[in-house]
Structure formats: structure tokens, C-alpha cells
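thread from #wetlab-drylab

HS: before we spend reagent money on co-crystallization trials with glycyl-adenosine-5'-phosphate, can we at least see a predicted complex? here's what I'd submit
DV: go for it
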Amino acid sequence: MSKDTSNSPRVHKSESPEKIMEKLVSLSKRRGFVFQSSEIYGGLASCWDYGPLGVELKRNIKDQWWNTMTKTHDNIVGLDAAIMMNPKVWEASGHVQSFNDPMIDDKTSKIRYRADHLIEGYIKSLQKKGKIEESERVHKEYETALNNEPVTKNLYDLIIKEEIKSPDSGAFNWTEVRQFNLMFHSPLGAVADGSSIVYLRPETAQGIFVNFHTVRESSRMKIPFGIAQIGKAFRNEIVKGNFVFRMIEFEQMEMQYFIKPGTQMETFKAWQEERMNWYIERLGIQKEKLSWYKHDQLAHYADAAYDIKYEFPFGVEEIEGIHSRTDFDLSRHQEYSGKSLEYYDQDSKERYIPYVVETSAGCDRLFLTVLADAYSEDEIDGENRVCLRFKPSIAPVKAAVLPLMKKEGMPDIAMSLIKDLQQTFYVQYDESGSIGKRYRRQDEIGTPFCFTVDHDTLQDQTVTVRYRDSANQERISIDSVKTFLLEKLF
Ligand code: GAP
């Protein structure tokens, strides 16, 4: 019988998506994964804090990404650029002018919506009601509205024509549609006249573009090469909710791969394949819950864009974008800064502005992906249990050491094993409650292995190893616990 069944199917009792999300949010708070930011003051919408187990899990996800990018590719190097940059960066990137969402307010409830989401929701509701022809007609009109100026007026007219009602109040009492820039900004220093505005970056990518030359020269990279970065990004999102899926302060893991113009399609395909495999192999995500979404409407600077999507309890949503961004970003920074960002290709003896393929994932979304994917409920020894079936290498706690009883020297042996394991792994010691209860506690936080020190340990220096997913047990020598973990975890 297989002992390590981390790939066994997750068992959900047939429950509504809302109920599953409620359970994830409640477990996250109860066990210290994630809780609302500044909760004692009533919190702040779309801001969440990571607790003791949450930071471990998130760090493990980030480590997997960082190690894959920078250690398994000798042509990808790291960067940690400042969050705040010269404001010209955001003019050059186009964010000041066009990093907007179209918003509309329900004058009755005072709730703000994204006008595009409102229409998309309406189209979905028509489909659900079986009104396929009508939904197709509205979809066509929606595309026309998006592709023609003025977009805000077009969206407004469509909402009014279709008499789309407010999802919360049911009212049909809308303001005009306005564009809303998603960048947070603040005056810098003592000057408050608008002449020195700084922005909180809405993506980490621009820090990579503006450092392209310096990083390439200092690390002596030749094209093709990549720069990887993990860091905070900020967006004043109109739509909030779905736990850590959409936040106003979040973390991104982005990699820009600089290439010779003309090679972008083969590079794009290679990164698509690599990124999808990473989710399955490195994060242990169930393959059947992942899918591709192809963007047919491309941004003016892109020549290909796909999203990796995951089937969350609340729907299939984007977790990572892979974009072929041509030479748009470097060209714009060259133009706005007046500094050459050209590359001299010694092999082809050509000078060009490199093209870029980017992979852009959100850490918080991956955190939620890992959590939702791992969540399972099953029955062990006639008892219901919640079990987080994390891939062992990303589990926050790698192992627990449990003395069967608080006597006969068992706690001392367990503590000495803990001290030894702590040098290498994040482990927990637990001596309180029945052994069954202690196993359940560890199952609920996804600890893949429990080592129990019992009477036999006193005789033959062996411990019981209990596997989280199957609850199977076997005995191994106490001296081999570390090697056992090293083999199972890496
Ligand atoms: N540089 C490209 C870029 O930023 P994006 O599709 O806007 O592309 C990339 O964002 C990823 O960042 C998304 O796939 C998502 O995982 C994450 N992300 C974006 N906005 C987010 C938000 N408000 N909250 C949490 N994650 C977000």
C-alpha cells in the first residue's frame, strides 16, 4: 500500500462554494494562516495579514518559484527594486494614462462596481437562464463597446439599454461610467502641489525594465536572459473580496525574459509549458483544476497573452499571466529617459532593443490556490477530519514529534529529536491531548509526517511514522528520521 498519498483526490462533501470558502477563511484564522488586517478596528477591505503558519506556507511557495527561476536556469538572475520609483517610470509605462478600470456607482446602495464586470455578470446570468441567443447578442454588443471610443459611454449605454440592475440592491439607479486609475499615489516630502507625486508600484515588472542594462552588465548576461523579482504591488481595486484572491496590497513573482526579436513565439511556448508544469510538479496542484485562457483582445504592445487559471470554489480564475510584450517597455523607457536600452548582439553583430516574454504570478493567489487545492474532508477511524493535503515540500510544518505519554522519559526523547530536526526543518512538538487529537491537529494544518515516541522507542530506538494522507503507520529507527524527511521533502 502506498504510504505517501499526497496525490490522492481531495474529498469535498457536496457543499456550496460559499460554504467551502467560509470553511477556508475560518480555518485560516483559527490555525493562524491568514486573518483580516487591523481586525480589532473592524479591518480594512481587501487587506489581509499572514499569521505564523501563513508566512511559512507563503515563503515555501516563493522559495519554490525563486529556486526554479534563479537556480535551475543559469541565465536568470534576481532583483529587488524599490517600490517607489521616479514618477516618469509610470508615464513611460503608460500606467498614468491608461491603468484604469471603468467604474459605475449604484446611487441607491452607494456600492461601486466595475462596469465591465457588471455586463459580464449579466451575460453569464442570461446563459444560466438558457437565453443563449440573447447572451450572444449582448456579448457582441459588449465587445463593440470595448473596442470603440468612448468606452465609458458605450458601457453606460449598454447597461441602460439592457436595464441591468444592481446585484446588491436590485435598483436601476446608476451614475455615469467613469475611468478610475488604480494606482495609489502620494505627494513626496513637503511639496504638496502635485509637482512631485510618487506612486506605489502596481506591478513589479517596471523595476525590472528600468534596471535591464545595469543588471545585464553587472551579471555579464547575454541575450537570452531573464530577471526575476518577488515584491509587493498595490492596486486601488474597485472590486474587492474573495479572501486573498483580490487585494489592494499583494505580492507578485515576475520574470521578464529578454530575447532577440523574432524569437518570441518559440520562447513564449516554452515558458507556457514550463510554467504549467511548475504548478503540477513543484506546487502539487491537481492538474485537472488548471486550465489555459487565451486573450483574443491583446493590449496594443502584446503579440500573445495567455492566463493560467485555477478552478477556485468561487469560479475559474486567473492565477498567472504569460505575456509576449514585444519591445514596447524598453522602447518607451529609452524614449522617456533618453538613455539607450539597446543591446549589441555579438553573435549576429546586430544592435536591437530586446523583446520580452514575461511570466507574472501573484503570491497571494497562489497561496489561495494551494490552500483550496489541499483542503479535504474525509473519515479516519470513524471520525470526520479536515486535512490539508499540501505537497510535503511546501507544507508549513514539515513534521510533528509527539511523545505518546508525558512520562517514562518519552518527552525527553521527543525533545531531543525535535532539537536535531530543527536545524533543518520547521517542526512542532506537541504533548497535549490524546494521540488521536494531536494527529487531527496536525492533519488540519497539513503536516505530512508525525513521529510518535512510545514504549517501543524505549526498547528498540524506533519511532512510529504516521502519514498524513493515508493515516498509515510504520516504524523506523529514530536515527533515520532526518534522512527519511530529507528523502520525502526534496
Ligand atoms: N506585469 C504584468 C502584470 O502585472 P497582471 O495580470 O495585471 O499582469 C499578474 O498581474 C498577476 O498578479 C495576476 O495573475 C495575479 O495573480 C496577480 N494579481 C493582480 N492583481 C491582483 C490583486 N489585486 N490581488 C492579488 N493578486 C493580484
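DV: Residues 1-9 have pLDDT under 50 and may be disordered.
HS: ok that's useful, forwarding to the group
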